[in-house]
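Practice problem: predict the structure.
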Amino acid sequence: MREELLPGGNTTGAVLIGGVVHKRASRWTATVHAVLRHLEDAGFDAAPRALGFDDQGREMLSFLPGETIGGREPWPGWASADSMLVQVGQWLRRVHDLTAGFVPPQDECWFVGRTMGPGLVVGHQDASPYNAVVDGDRLVGFCDWDTAGPSSRDWDLAFSALTWVPLASPRDGRPLSDDDVRERARRLRLLLDAYGYEGDRSGFAVAVPQRARRQADVIRHLAHAGDAAAIALLPIAELLERSATDVEALPAAFWTR
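Answer:
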């Protein structure tokens, strides 16, 4: 059958064959598939279904039909729509609630190198606009579960806040105006309200910059090891470092507005 190259996919190229997604597998893929089967068994249909492996050892996943950002610049309007941000918060809450009781296989292996434990959920870890699948104004779900793994709820939320609110700094380096800061505070509140977050929101003043720096460290580590995709993402690592510094400079009132 003909292989159709799918748009996006900064780390693992994906192709569509006969309506099934085929992607390069990693040593943690089998554990991620266990998560996807757990979600499927719970009736959750806003994530790909794990379909095993092909004769080349590539993982096989069901295809989520809809629109993705791919390589488009600027991003489509839905990436900044309030209605989409609300759906992202609701999607994260559903995934976290469903995976709070997930029991991994005995040989569990994760990209993040952490094991499941009390109080942890399985976070997507990259539920950002460039991994979203959208149909009109409806969030279909998120693809690219490669880096999913054990996480606190705050840690997973922090990365989505960076990319969807967004709390990441502008790529052009321009400073934020007072109106920009107020709008970001409003959208952060919208995301956390949609999630139903009941913790101390001021804690995100620490969690968000830590999450940004952790992501930057991972990119640089992989790039140093010669990973071509990570090398291409080095400018993003720089942006994440700048974002962490800028977030730390926000006033305390920002987090509780």
